[in-house]
Amino acid sequence: MSAALALLRRDLSLLMPGGSGGGVLPLLFFLAVAMLYPFAVGPDAQLLARTGGGVIWVAALLAAILPLEKLVTDDLEAGVFDQLALRNVSEELAMAIRLLAHWLAFAPLLLVATLPAAALLGLDEATTRTVLLGLLAGTPGLAAVGLAVAALTASMRGGAALAGLMVIPLAVPILIFGAGALSRPDTSGILFTAAISLGLCALAPFAAAAAIRAAREN
Amino acid sequence: MQAQLTAKDIACRRVERLLFKGLSLDCAPGDALQVAGANGVGKSSLLRILAGLLRPFAGEVSSTGAIGLVDERLALDANQPLGKALAFWERLDGCSDPGRALEVLQLEPLLDVPVRYLSTGQKKRAALARLLNRNCPVWLLDEPLNGLDTQAQKSVEALVALHCGGGGIAVVASHQPFAVPGGKALAIEDYAA
């Protein structure tokens, strides 16, 4: 338990904006997309309100890719996981903690940034609420996919670019149900998104841990 | 502490190439062993096999007692000050007195310096401090003298002697002469495949 807390403390200090490894870059990127979109399609308020929710979802998905480069690679190269293994801290535990820290470092701020983004796109209150709930349900899944892919590509050259490409198809189900909830009167889309997220969060630490162990053999 | 480190008839293969085979060793409490050999002969791989991080291609490794490894990978966050980077491992290892290792290795003046600004020798000393703080009976040291000045080299040899004198085990892979207590040496070339 104390090992888990020590890990969480370290991961948060590395990943949180203002920490040594993280940054507010994904957040600025997210807001930039919401700001540029009205410039690109013109000031048609109806069009913006109808498509704005989807744009926020796409921006969130792409913003979730940005922190992946440093998520696993640095620690793998520095031998942190080797030292943890010698202390009987399993890769699964380390990855589960990192998933939590990764989500905490990007999702809550993204949800806050959704409010100005929704205002920029002229979304009404009900749509904004659906987007927020959908992102709350979907971001854990995005974090899980990102972590697993980051671990898989950590030992490759140019792995970061590849990670970005690999996350996109895996994140499509989250996008379909999360953004799809905007065009439905009920909450089934959000619930589906949450279910996919839970499944991914359960699988990701094991996939990522296996990838880290496999990287030792190279 | 009852430390034990045994390897029976192990072989190591890296990327389609058999590095060594038929290697056995047996370390009892107080034993120190220097693993010698040219670059690329498999010293680091042997240590990683003994640490349980790499599966041997053949043979078996067994050990009692916690294993501490110091290799070329620092496992300290490059952007954090040394004190903070070490503090993570102290918390994980439940170390109550980190001051002693810092004093022995003369790291106190460097605690505020970000790890990436440390010199090669200073980084090596930081890794050794983490090892000391852990208080584990089995030491695996991979090129512990690299980058160290003469004085620091002497103090590392003294640390190993002290560790083995207290019933610990040390396996030291080094291409430079390393005075281990007892003077046992193992040349990997003898087991080359």
Give an overview in words.
The complex is a heterodimer of chains A (218) and B (193). With 218 residues, chain A is mostly helical. Chain A has one domain (2-216). In chain A, 81% of the residues lie in helices and 0% in strands. Chain A contains nine helices and no strands. Chain A has helices spanning 2-15, 25-41, 45-65, 73-78, 80-86, 91-121, 125-153, 159-180, 188-216. In chain A, helix 1 (2-15) runs parallel beside helix 6 and helix 3 runs parallel beside helix 7. Chain A is elongated. Chain B is of the alpha/beta class and 193 residues long. Helix content of chain B is 30%, strand content 26%. The termini of chain B are far apart. Chain B is built from five helices and eight strands, in the order E-E-E-H-E-E-H-H-H-E-H-E-E. Chain B has helices at residues 43-50, 82-93, 98-104, 120-134, 150-165, and strands at residues 4-14, 17-27, 32-36, 58-64, 67-70, 138-142, 169-173, 185-187. In chain B, the strands form two sheets. Chain B has a five-stranded parallel β-sheet with strand order 5-6-7-3-8, with helices on both faces. In chain B, helix 5 links the parallel strand 6 (138-142) and strand 7. At the A-B interface, helix 1, helix 4 and helix 5 of A face strand 5 and helix 2 of B.
